[in-house]
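Input chain follows. Return structure tokens only.
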Amino acid sequence: MKSMTNEQWQTYEHLTKTILLGLGILLFINTYSKLKLPTMLIVVEVFFIGLMIDQINKYKKYIQTYLLLGAAIGLLIGVLACFHIDVIKCFYESFQWLGQYGGIEDRYVFYKAFCSSIILNIVVLLPLYLLQKSIKLQSGLSAIILIGMIGLTIKKIEVGKEVVVLVLSYMAWVLIQVGSQLNQRQNKQYSKKASTFLVPFALLIGIGSIIGPASPKPISWQFVIKTAQQVAESINDLAASIQGFTRGDTGEFQIRFSDQDKMELGGKLENSEEVLLTVEVLPLLENTRIKQLYEKLGYQLKQTPMPKNPTYLKGNVRNSYTGRGWDREKVYEVEDEQEYQLEYKELLYSLYRSGINTAQELFHPASIAINFEKLRTKSLFYTNATYDMRLEEDEKLPSTKGVNITYKRTKKKGFNYHFSFVEMNLGSQIFKDYLRSLENFHYQENPIETSLVPTALPEDAVFWQAYPQQGIAGFLTSTKLEKQLYERAVHIKEDYTVLPSHLPARVYELAQNITKDSPTTYDKLEAIKAYLAQFTYTKIPEAVPKDEDFVDYFLFEQKEGYCTSFATAMAVLARCMDIPTRYVEGIVVDYNQSVNGVYPVTESKMHAWVEAYIEGYGWVPFDSTPQFNNYSAQNWNVTLASTGAEASTPEINMPEQSPALVPPVIEEQVKEENLVPWIILWIIGLSLVILPTLFLTYIGIVALQYKRKLRKAVTNEKAKLLLKEILFYLGKRGYEKQEEESMLEYAKRIDQELSVKEVLFEEMITIYLNYRYGQHQVTGEEIKGLEAYLVCLKRTLTEELSRLNYIRFKIHFLLVK
């Protein structure tokens, strides 16, 4: 290992002393001024601001350093401006607040205290760093500090033990160095290194053990762990925000691919086993009458009713197929109505119209709680036939009319809610036959007053609790609902059957052939699902060429893929037959494994499926992925009493649980979600103010060092550096040298496959071979040729790739060169 120079030792010493003393002073200010900031937050501030001052001092001769610093600060101000935060105004107000606060509790504002601490950090650390240049200045500073501590003692102003340890450690370090210079002049370097390494650690341990009280219990370090977790959460939030900003990401839930940034289908699918969220099955609402109603139908509600099948949680529904993926176009929305509630009303109307509302074989009540873990999204998950959704007391449902329920701010770990829903037995023969019977049903031709079965509207109907005030009969017989369902069905037919004009004709022909023997809409959908079941499931499908339609290529060329491919193909084939469909991405909850009654859901359970609209019933889910296609359509195999056999009662071997949440009453019309408190925004943004600055400054410094090295290099060395950079960019673009290729063969292949105008790569390789094996001295003209090729290559890559990807490659090169 290369030993450090004397200059490097001095830099290390100056920075360490500055942080040591600065931390002590700022901890004292935090206590004395009652800023109430966490200790670890101050430690992080002092460390990063001290490091930034040290790096600026190290490269202060370069004008680029100040340009990069200004650019980084400007970038941060711009990012925070996106959150409507005026940084300059906030710091100015915080500075004024610091003079007016005076420790008065009613005047305390956390984010102003935090901004004030950043100002104080700069004001304290900058002069302290400059004072470390001379041992005489350090000695004078130590004397002043000693006098100040004596004065504080006389004034009976309390100084924390950690402050005393830090300050005395600094003073002892300075004292030892003064003694080293006086008594060991012949071995200055040794004494400097020894004191630099040993003094701060020895004194911190020694003085800390003397001053610190003896405790019978070991230190738990909970404050360190908690603060570190908070910092990590803030870093993750900031990274996700920046990533979403650069990608144009809306923050809504979607299935991500390993090698694609755009909202296009395809690419490799890589799922980890990280737990995204957990699900807990809850007892139904604590209501005696509801319990009696369900028990009358044969349900044992002394125990928690488990869902019969895996639950499909919708996270992101899209309606517009582009030929490469799915987008969301504006569709018809019913005024003054939440879409998920209207879907439930349509289901109720359908069941009551049919007269089969009390058949236990067809429905099953359930209630689940969802708790976010690793998942970060603005999307709220729910399933079909959800009728009651409840959140924590300080949360409200966002006001949205569409099928997607989306918050304005990202929800993360700790966010939880629960909802009740009716699980439909999609695999029941009665249910299938009922959907077939709706083939010629239209709301316009079947007015509500003539469609409902009178005997199907008992006062104790099982669904009454969703609308207890007006009752089932009240809203099902209203002309308002009749008009809503009719107009909505017409628009669904228009909005959810659209296909791109460039969709190949053979896709339409295939849809016709698949469904030619299917008499009803439901049978057509089942035929398409069965056809796709013959395809191969894989997480690493072949890439779809850019000039190909995704579905066409999947159906006729690729014939393998994962859930997004199967769901998209089924949706498009159904639309070819004029059947309204929509594409759904979400999460499938499997109840086979639990941990203490809680069901963890990992990233591997992210999934895509299709919902098809059948007028008279509503949206019906279809899962065409071979690995999942029986999940949503399993028959519960319940024997009905009407058949002459004894009706069976669902058996649940699960202990009774209490709801994890205390739900408030939620109105159908809710106000917009309150903005996240400013305190959280400040912690996320300003507590990490130094990180982007340091990163950009570091990248800029590395770039300057590389340019300087390139400028000073002699011709052969310069040629080597330029060729190394050229090969790096070629490799990143996918033009790597094959093992069996010679350098000249490789160069010729590059010239054929990659169009770099004006200069040939073969000429560049010839230069390398001449000086590498022929002892040739590279000329100035040859250097210019290499530089010209590199410029042309960068221009070509910029044209082929996005500007963002090129910058990413450039940063990667600087870090690994």
